[in-house]
Amino acid sequence: MSETVETIWQPRPQPFPVSGMPASVRIYEVGPRDGLQAEATLVPVEVKAEFCRRLVDAGVSTIELTSFVSPKWIPQLADAEQLMTELALPETVRQVVLAPNQRGLDRALAAGAREVAVFVSATETFAAKNLNSTVRGALDAAAPVVQGAVAAGLPVRGYISMCFGDPWEGPVAPSMVADVAEQLVALGVTSLSLGDTIGVATPGHVHAVLGEVLARGIGVDSVAMHFHDTYGQALTNVYASLQAGVIEFDSSAGGLGRCPYAKGATGNLATEDLLWMLHGLGVSTGVDLDALARTSSWMAARMGNESPSAVVTALAAGRA
Amino acid sequence: MSETVETIWQPRPQPFPVSGMPASVRIYEVGPRDGLQAEATLVPVEVKAEFCRRLVDAGVSTIELTSFVSPKWIPQLADAEQLMTELALPETVRQVVLAPNQRGLDRALAAGAREVAVFVSATETFAAKNLNSTVRGALDAAAPVVQGAVAAGLPVRGYISMCFGDPWEGPVAPSMVADVAEQLVALGVTSLSLGDTIGVATPGHVHAVLGEVLARGIGVDSVAMHFHDTYGQALTNVYASLQAGVIEFDSSAGGLGRCPYAKGATGNLATEDLLWMLHGLGVSTGVDLDALARTSSWMAARMGNESPSAVVTALAAGRA
What is the pTM of this model? Predict the structure, then answer.
């Protein structure tokens, strides 16, 4: 039953609603920042801008554009100011930029940022290795950034990484995630993104982490889930999150940032694979699956690689 | 949040049960038949036998070994008799062989088959193109095979392909699937496998098809689900099926039969990716994930390709 068939029908998701699902969800597109940050090939700013415009043309209404991080750390995003100047996206598009520190916030505000994201870790080892700090230290460092953004009238998204497992510490207690979530909210963040950075989560674990976080009085509609597909579990974890009432999910167009071939390939859920499920559930996203898949194929060609997205691959084969 | 991290912890599924899940699930391993049938590289019978032995050593207790199909149709499986002779798997292993017609059944019985599978289609076009028949004609052709196997005291599994979409007809009505399922049961099959041959299903569609089939008085524990990962939906559809009470799932070790690179790659859910979720849910399978992943890496090396399984890829990277 595995034969490849010459297709006449071009399959698309057929809506079969499941009770208890939200009528619509927000796709938080991380391709331009989180996706490109993980790509070795340096992408010209004009291509990044065109990519963002095509995403918006496809109906994407929330995009994380770039990070005002030091170019020393992430050369790929050294053009953050240029991209912001180059881009003139409609006001209706929610546009977020990462500001890892005070310097990043100053640059973001000067560049006309409309929403800022900060980044902390649920685990000490990742805080030490990736943020050169501690969990407490990362929260203290985030505090003035959050407060500065709030003072400037901007919403702030707080990312928490390693919410399900840590590559050095192993399993992560849901209470550790909830502790950090609670402190970020106390600092003034307006939304959270809980990241399964190493992709180990399964549905019961998702319910456990969400349960702890919501038990701290944090509203489910201010919590986004950010799953990685390292172990093939991302989409199922989205489904479990939907059943728990989550209405915002991080994904990257075409699975950008996830190498399709590398051993131990890690990275983001492909937006198209997510859309296939959501549209199949009759959950509206406002995104045109075909237009997005064409955009991802276009971007993959610019990157000189192939999209790891199953849907992008299958739809491209159907067009061929 | 997509950086590849140097891992010290070797991640494994952490059990977080979800209420309403079965305590255990049967993995119906289709790699040796359905997987190899789709592989271009001809595999020596000794390698196939060793592959099956390693599957059993890893704890796999249900395997579809081969198909007694005409070698003209599937050269890869021309060695069905030799494989059966070569193999001496323990009585405790459920061993199934496909018998596409009377001639196939005669060969299967002569080779000492213990369980037989037959194959029909839910759609007319696939019946015509793949079985050179009609839905009715395929059922009529299956009748003597089912009855002959039952008369020989063997259980019979009835595969139904194209249960969610047909590459020529498009969407398939759940009632068409239920009609065929009902007729197969009337013929005497002891279990069913409902196939999403082109991988288009989403969870609500799974509930719709299962609902129609179970409404015909067919017991859920006699229904297995066979999902393909063409659009990345297979594992989520398994999760939805689990929530509907299904306790048997078809998958292939390492995703054998699914080309990791080909445009429009189709094929089976990888058993390892399925095990990651099941073990993460605290659902027991009797299969050793690490031993199975090593077996799939070994087999991929024999095939001269790489496993498309995310879990096999990630665990191999962890061992390296």
Answer: 0.96
